[in-house]
Amino acid sequence: MPLQQRRRGIRVVGASVALVGLLAGCSGAGGSSSSGGEETLNVLMVNNPQMVELQKLTADNFTKETGIKVNFSVLPENDVRDKITQDFANQAGQYDIATISNFEVPFFAKNGWLHSLDEYTEKDKTFDQADILKPLQESLTAEDGKLYGQPFYGESSFLMYRKDVFEAKNLTMPAKPTWKEVADLAAKVDGAQKGMRGICLRGLPGWGEVIAPLTTVVNTMGGTWFTKDWEAQLTSPEFTKATKFYVDLVRNHGEAGAPQAGYAECLNNMTQGHSAMWYDATAGAGSLEAKGSPVKGKIGYVPAPVDKTDSSGWLYTWAWGMQKASKKTESAWKFMSWASGKEYEKLVGEKIGWSNVPAGKRASTYTNPDYLKEAGAFAEVTKDAIANANPTDPGTQPRPTVGIQFVDIPEFTDLGTKVSQEISAAIAGKKSVEDALKVSQALAEKVGKKQQ
Fold first, then answer.
1. Domains and CATH numbers, the chain
2. Where is the signal peptide (predicted)?
3. pTM to 2 decimals?
4. Is the dihedral of CA 415, 418, 420, 423 positive or negative?
């Protein structure tokens, strides 16, 4: 069954977006208009390394080829999510395009905030929609069967480790590690080099920050946020065990300043030799193997650690979404097609380096000899992780909706963020895991009752 058909029953407008949902009355305005002579696009996007590279390449390539100028607004992940939700809900058309994810697509599409893309992919044969990896296509298709996003890159999660450090300590990383094995290894490599900690794990508040890796640990250790009947489970033995494991691991062997460390901080720690291991997004590997990286060629890559499940990697994509109210849809599609196209991957490969290519979205990327020559260390592991991700059944018990590292309901942005603040406080030693989860359970119960 297609992924979008398994989203039935999702409440479209919840507590976290109730206000902005009321503002979306003009959501159809200007949706089908063309560029109308306007040759400037406004793009709102997250500040991940691949997006920063895109920003640098746009003027000399896309604008030069098309005459279409692009104004970028670039913000950190937590900030950009809030701004995108606000702008797209208002449907004022301030931004023509924004980076959205497979989390937002179901309810953004249902609320009429996005322009469907099927008409463009059907006409634009050079884009080759069939080349987009199936898990990503499904995750960006809404319940109505229409496509609402084009992936800039796709990712799962895996474990990255310093091969040279492990060799020096006579340690072997298992081909498919368990979390217990990872914890044991973290203790052994902690302090292996001056200023080096055993592992880096996100501790920064945010439903897309600490909650993402933590929830994969919860899943594989037998826990879940909600039962299939929306009963909150944050104080269950399984959820508690997984959270205590995560918090203890990062407190005992994790990075300095963990409560303020997210994806960007862990990437920097791994690049600068401050961490021997890092569990996070597969997209991070491109930066680690980039030209000039101090750790290029020193990193090994293995699947996401497990406990009770066969796999535990998440499924995520930063994708381009077109605001329904945009009056520059034809120009917007030209940019989306370029930024998610094969030629852009080739451009990055030739100008910046093939390991920097925003991968994880096209089957052809993984048969490209130029890409495989530079990204061979992590290419196959990434592709397998995406293929093995199971958003409909990521744990050991039935779920009420899809999602691996999140619960795919609008209310999760607010719930996940509030719970993340509790977890970060526990990582900081300001409260116990039990107290943090007690508060979190009460928050989750309110959300669960609204879903029932």
1. 40-155+316-376 (3.40.190.10), 157-313+388-449 (3.40.190.10)
2. 1-29
3. 0.85
4. negative
